[in-house]
Design brief:
The protein is elongated. The chain is an alpha+beta fold. Helix 7 packs antiparallel against helix 8. Helices cover about 25% and strands about 20% of the residues.
């Protein structure tokens, strides 16, 4: 059973007395729900437990919160014992009348039949105090003219002393147990009660009666034990003129507010998790990144904001001003990514439907509970494409939810998918060919100028338009649409395995929102959210080949075509030459690097090289698409390698990964590129291929290839995570080229154990 529900039940038990005061007439309903929650936990019924937690939260939220000045009795297990020496009906009643700054106590005693104040109906039965264990100290209120009448029931006497007299100054000590009654129909203004010091038996109560206008007595620090703090939760709420409960009116404006506090009736969702619970107690810096879907952020508000968790509060509340789109959208909402002190906690999608302007307020029946330790963590999914007689069969499985299905697509075929991908590629051709890349040669170090920033913004718009058109084509097939929409709802950093030998889709550049209706949000691109990898079907050797790769010769075999630099005279650093400096630095970090000239590179690929290959074969070369379908390793005569060139040649040692960082590798057709992957995997027994889905500028390709290689070879990242880290680093700098890289290999493989 998850710890969240059990911790919640423990807090209810700890807050029992405070909740009695707050809930009043709803106490019986609360008790029944709490008992049902305990039974659900005992039976391991997670769904029922979560539902009951939501009901209890809603019940508590519907009742007014008690003031901080209300009387708190610590150690309630002792307080609620019935006194053996007390007569039936005797005890203290907490009075919390509206408008009073502090509660009062009045007598409820069957013998004197003095009625207690009507609110709240809570009787605290105090155990009798024996010997010298406790005392009662009384001070009358300055505005009470009559002498208070204080019946005292001593611990060793069967009768009650009904009329002890006290002066208006501090009275003496009285062993035993005191009951307070009204004097001349005037109630005492204040009584504070506390437990005895540790080690004492029973309870000692200090009762201070004072004029609130003149005196605000405080309990001695040594004798004061703060009661349990009220329960608080991290929550989201909507507010503003456009808010309609948990929805927003068409074209309306509303603020999505993330806050920490007692559960509110208008809360949309509660986020929890072990690290969030710890932050409530210990504090920390909480970050929230919001990526709206169907909305724009207003007023130039940054998509990521931070606040401090201090003394069980979030200072300040995190507020995202939203502007709803112009179309009714039941699937609208926002992705929320939470981090604490720089460590990612998880992500989730918060539904915020866009409704008609005159729509009524919409509120969910229950507050949504999001456990970041489970619901917000990455999951796995698998999408399989098989071509049969010109038709395309697809199967899908979500490993977390269990959802899955298999079907023959009614409207899409391998040929139509390849045509859609070709249209996509032609749509983004302007991105790698932009003159910007001759100046922005090191995307990880150079800050773009303002003019370059405008060009980069235009590139993201170009990619988003192409990704949206491809999304629209693929989701036009109703069966494939179900699978793609499920992927689109996965938590951030989920891993999607694509198995195919018939089609290639640039998944990283899928964009599921119309960029001409709303502002472009790079974080919505699938390559920014998910880790994709593609493998061949019925590849039964992958598991053992992953082990062979991990145990193979460490380091990289670099094959760099020096002729690439001929096109970049005056550019610094030169893309091909920069690899020599990278290799030297890698060696200093205990990453061996062999550098092959064009002739040695050809010998390495054809299996007749002087030295065995290492686990990372890195090819920085020209790519020739179309009918040629080749890579140019450089040198004279032309040093071309085609997929057919690899057939019948000896396999590589150690099942390496081949990084085909070719400036034109993405110009290959979808099927031709898959054939290159097939040739490396089948004929050369490489574990897989890292390549580009579209052409890339050589200057940027050099920097990206070196960064991916470093993250993988030093063992800090598995293969898919290395590509993802580079993509996100570049997107954070507003550079899109990292999205052009794709993985045809197992994503979870590592260079080191």
């Amino acid at each position: 059973m998850g710890t969240r529900e059990t911790q919640f039940l423990r807090r209810l038990e700890r807050d029992d007395l405070r909740l009695r005061i707050q809930l009043k007439e709803a106490w019986a309903e609360f008790t029944a729900l709490k008992q049902a929650l305990r039974q659900a936990l005992d039976h391991g019924d997670t769904a029922q437990a979560r539902a009951l937690v939501a009901q209890i939260r809603a019940l508590i939220a519907s009742r007014p919160q008690p003031s901080r000045s209300k009387l708190t009795l610590t150690r309630p297990s002792l307080v609620l014992k019935r006194a053996l020496a007390a007569k039936p009906g005797a005890g203290f009643v907490i009075l919390a009348a509206p408008g009073r700054t502090k509660p009062t106590l009045a007598q409820q005693n069957a013998r004197f039949r003095t009625p207690a104040r009507p609110v709240p109906p809570l009787v605290i039965h105090m155990p009798s105090i024996g010997g010298d264990a406790g005392k009662a100290r009384f001070q009358s209120t300055a505005v009470t003219l009559a002498t208070p009448r204080l019946p005292i029931l001593t611990h060793n006497a069967p009768h009650a002393e009904t009329q002890p007299r006290f002066s208006k100054s501090l009275g003496g000590d009285h062993r035993g147990f005191a009951y307070i009654q009204q004097a001349d129909s005037k109630a005492f203004d204040e009584i504070l009660a506390q437990t005895a010091l540790p080690g004492h038996r029973g309870l000692a109560f200090q009762l201070d009666l004072a004029d609130l206008e003149h005196t605000a007595p405080e309990l001695p620090a040594a004798d004061t034990s703060a009661g349990p703090p009220p329960t608080v939760d991290f929550q989201f709420r909507l507010e503003g003129t456009g808010a309609r409960g948990s929805a927003v009116a068409l074209g309306g404006e509303a603020d999505l507010v993330f806050f920490l506090g007692a559960l509110r009736a208008d809360s949309l969702a509660v986020a929890s998790g072990a690290q969030l619970e710890q932050a409530i107690e210990s504090g920390g810096s909480l970050g929230v990144m919001l990526v709206p879907v169907g909305y724009d952020l207003r007023d130039g508000t940054p998509c990521r904001q931070t606040a401090q968790v201090v003394e069980r509060r979030l200072e300040p509340e995190i507020r995202f001003p939203l502007k709803a789109g112009r179309l009714i959208n039941p699937a609208a909402g926002a992705w929320a990514y939470l981090d604490l002190d720089g460590v990612q906690l998880g992500s989730f999608f918060l539904e915020l439907p866009i409704v008609a302007a005159n729509a009524p307020v919409v509120m969910a029946a229950e507050v949504r509970h999001i456990d970041l330790d489970s619901d917000g963590q990455p999951v796995g999914a698998q999408l399989v494409f098989r071509s049969q007689g010109g038709a395309l069969n697809v199967s899908y499985a979500n490993n977390a939810s269990g959802y899955g299905d298999t079907c023959a697509l009614p409207t899409l075929s391998p040929a139509s998918v390849e045509q859609a991908v070709a249209v996509f590629k032609s749509s983004v051709d302007s991105v790698p060919s932009d003159a910007l890349w001759s100046y922005l040669t090191d995307p990880f170090q150079q800050p773009p100028t303002s003019n370059q920033q405008k060009s980069l913004d235009g590139m993201f718009l170009t990619i988003a338009r192409a990704g949206w058109a491809l999304w629209a084509t693929l989701t036009a097939d109703p069966d494939l649409a179900k699978f793609l929409h499920d992927i689109n709802a996965l938590p951030a950093n989920s891993r999607v395995s694509v198995i195919t030998n018939s089609i290639f889709i640039p998944w990283e550049m899928i964009y599921p929102e119309n960029p001409d209706a709303l502002a472009v949000k790079p974080a919505l691109l699938w390559g920014a959210r998910y880790l994709f990898h593609t493998t061949l079907p019925q590849d039964s050797n992958i598991a053992q080949d992953k082990k062979a790769h991990r145990n193979s010769t460490p380091g990289a075999s670099l094959c760099v075509n020096p002729a690439i630099d001929d096109d970049f005279a005056g550019v610094s650093p030169l893309p091909a030459a920069s690899h020599h400096a990278w290799a030297a630095q890698a060696r200093l970090q205990n990453i061996p690097c062999d550098e092959a000239d064009p002739a040695a590179a050809r010998a390495l690929l054809l299996g007749n090289g002087a030295a065995p290959s290492r686990k990372w074969i890195y090819l920085f070369c020209h790519g020739l698409g179309g009918a040629g379908n080749a890579i140019d390793l450089g040198g004279t005569p032309p040093n071309l390698i085609q997929p057919a060139s690899l057939a019948g040649t000896p396999p590589f040692d150690g099942r390496p990964i081949v990084f085909l960082n070719s400036c034109g590798s993405g110009a290959h057709s979808a099927l031709a590129l898959t054939n290159f992957y097939t040739a490396f995997r089948r004929d050369k027994q490489a574990l897989g291929l890292v390549t580009t889905s579209c052409p890339v500028p050589a200057t940027t390709a050099a920097a990206i290839g070196q960064r991916i290689s470093s993250l993988y070879l030093d063992g800090s990242h598995d293969l898919a995570a290395a590509l993802q880290a580079v993509r996100l680093e570049l997107i954070a700098r507003n550079i899109p080229i990292g999205l052009f890289y794709t993985l045809h290999a197992p994503g979870d493989v590592r260079a080191r154990a």
